[in-house]
Amino acid sequence: MSPLVSIIVLNYDKRHYTRKCLESVVRSTHRPLEVVLVDNGSTDGSLEEIPAWQRLLTEHDVDMKCHLNETNAGAPAGRNQGMRLAEGEYVAWMDNDVLVRDKDWIDRLRERLDGDPGLGIVSPKLLFPPPDERIEFAGCAVTPRGRVVYVGRGRPQDDPEANVERDVQCLISACVLLPRRAIEAAGEMDEAFFPVQYEDIDYCYRLKSLGFRCRIVPSVSMYHYEHITTDGSTDIKFLQVTTKNGMLFRRRWRHVFETEGGPPDDAYRWEDLERPRLEE
């Protein structure tokens, strides 16, 4: 019998994205499957939609659990709450602006984890949704000064350099799969990275400090709208939060990334690409 897989999805005032995300999740071929939905104090009518989401999942043989926060507890706290409810032997973190592209994504990523006990976290390649379908993310690199680089960003989805399966310095939590053994070893996300940004990078470095490795599997692809949760959220000062949490990450892990052989700092350039959006 296949092992139970838990998918933790955070929602914060973006119900139409969560709706599309869950509609895509049920197309996943793996069963048994459960979704753990954590709502971070939404006021946009998301709570009223939860019964419909529950029915959708149940109709497709997917279990659902919910944790409802009265206010925005932040991404790391929300994922921790989800992990406490999750019962799967494998746990996926999936942002609510991710859509399933490859229906067998869970089993293909799980095969990597089962075939290599040294792996603690794996990620598919992330593409911008149609009609764009360029690469958003094919693994993370970290420069010697601690700048995080998205490998392959903005390139065609079949770019050769971005389609090599390999270990990477870290991964983002938009869509990743972890085995229970890694979560039990590393514990919960550090809620000092409130409300969002760098909590996933920090977690990858904690996994590595315990002897696990991070791996990108670009033969598996998912769609990602990118930065939807924070987009238009007046209570999240994105630049300020990114700066604050980035400083915390660099202080904590400088002794590691300074000597990891990441790309030179002068090669770093963030491309602020035009991103597709869903209509309400």
Brief digest:
The chain has 280 residues and is of the alpha/beta class.
Task: Describe the model.
This protein is α/β, with parallel strands linked by helices. The chain has a single domain, classed as Alpha-Beta Complex (Spore Coat Polysaccharide Biosynthesis Protein SpsA, Chain A). 30% of the residues lie in helices and 25% in strands. The strands form three sheets. A five-stranded mixed beta sheet has the order 3-2-1-4-11, with helices on both faces. Strands 5, 6, 7, 10 and 12 form a five-stranded mixed beta sheet that branches. A two-stranded antiparallel sheet has the order 8-9. Helix 1 (15-25) links the parallel strand 1 (5-11) and strand 2 (33-40). It is globular, with a radius of gyration of 18 Å. It starts with a strand and ends in a 23-residue tail after the last helix. The mean pLDDT is 95.
Question: How far apart, in Å, are the first and last alpha carbons?
Answer: 40 Å
Number of DSSP helices? 7
Overall average residue pLDDT = 95
- The name of the CATH topology is Spore Coat Polysaccharide Biosynthesis Protein SpsA, Chain A
The total beta strand count reads: 12
Tell me the Rg in angstroms: 18 Å
**Low-pLDDT segments, ≥5 res:** none
CATH superfamily: Spore Coat Polysaccharide Biosynthesis Protein SpsA, Chain A
Shape: globular
Numbering strands along the chain, what is their spatial order in the largest sheet? 3-2-1-4-11
CATH class: Alpha Beta
Helix residue percentage: 25-40%
Which architecture does the CATH hierarchy give at level 2?
Alpha-Beta Complex
Look at the helices and sheets and give the structural class.
alpha/beta
Q: What is the N-to-C succession of helices and strands?
A: EHEHEHEEHEEEEEEHHEH
Largest sheet: 5 strands, mixed
Tally of domains: 1
Q: What percent of residues are in strands?
A: 15-25%
